[in-house]
């Protein structure tokens, strides 16, 4: 949010997405912590990991392996620091996976990647390929405009105040979703 102090760290007009907990990541991490069986004993990819919050929740939930992926080198550094602070092991990958092959992970976690149209289109195409390869996909989102609601089923709702909103703001529902692809 441009009015927040974190924007002072922006370089070339790009904010440090890794520097705060986005609401979609927060709600997905909260859902995983409340339902660790979702990831326990399974391999997990946290796509667009940012600070690593969702990846850390997956590791704490008992995932057998967690890979946190982001296109920002600073995010990857933040994940390493945050994982160490939480005493969990997380593999990091600095890459844009959206146009590549389906990853080996059994579960794909996506916290808040539907905030702009062009990115949302790429994420949807990637998730459709992953779904076609029998990957389970879970998404966290606060209701962003480009969220493909017609491809998902709500699996949990949690009250949340978005980053940058005043402390007195009323929480609004944020959802954890299971991505099921195009519905007939």
Q: What helical percentage do the residues reach? A: 25-40%
Spatial ordering of strands, largest sheet: 3-2-1-4-5-7-6
> What's the count of strands?
7
Can you give the mean pLDDT? Answer: 90
Distance between the termini: 37 Å
The major sheet is characterized as: 7 strands, mixed
Class of secondary structure makeup: alpha/beta
Low-confidence stretches: none
Residues in β-strands, percent: 15-25%
Indicate the radius of gyration in whole angstroms: 15 Å
Shape: globular
Strand and helix layout:
Layout: H1 23-34, E1 43-47, H2 53-60, E2 65-70, H3 73-85, E3 91-94, E4 107-111, H4 117-132, E5 136-141, E6 152-160, E7 172-179
Parallel strand pairs: 1-2, 1-4, 2-3, 4-5
Antiparallel strand pairs: 5-7, 6-7
What would you say this structure looks like, in words?
The structure is a single chain. By secondary structure, this protein is an alpha/beta fold. It is 27% helix and 23% strand. It has a seven-stranded mixed beta sheet with strand order 3-2-1-4-5-7-6, with helices on both faces. Helix 1 packs parallel to helix 2. It is globular. 40% of the residues are buried. The mean pLDDT is 90.
Notable traits:
seven-stranded mixed beta sheet; 184 residues; 27% helix; alpha/beta
In brief, what are we looking at here?
By secondary structure, the protein is of the alpha/beta class.
């Amino acid at each position: 949010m441009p009015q927040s102090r974190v924007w002072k760290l922006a370089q070339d007009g790009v904010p440090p997405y890794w520097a705060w907990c986005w609401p979609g990541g927060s709600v997905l991490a909260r859902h995983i912590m409340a339902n660790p069986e979702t990831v326990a004993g399974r391999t997990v990819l946290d796509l667009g990991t940012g600070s690593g919050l969702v990846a850390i929740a997956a590791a704490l939930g008992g995932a057998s392996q967690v890979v946190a992926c982001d296109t920002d080198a600073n995010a990857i550094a933040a994940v390493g620091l945050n994982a160490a602070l939480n005493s969990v092991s997380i593999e990091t990958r600095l890459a844009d996976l959206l146009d590549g092959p389906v990853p080996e992970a059994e579960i794909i976690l996506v916290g808040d990647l539907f905030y702009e149209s062009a990115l949302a289109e790429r994420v949807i195409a990637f998730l459709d390929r992953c779904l076609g390869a029998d990957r389970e996909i879970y998404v966290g989102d606060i209701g962003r405009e480009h969220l493909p609601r017609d491809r998902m089923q709500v699996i949990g709702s949690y009250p949340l105040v978005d980053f940058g909103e005043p402390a007195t703001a009323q929480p609004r529902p944020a959802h954890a979703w299971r991505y099921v692809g195009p519905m007939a």
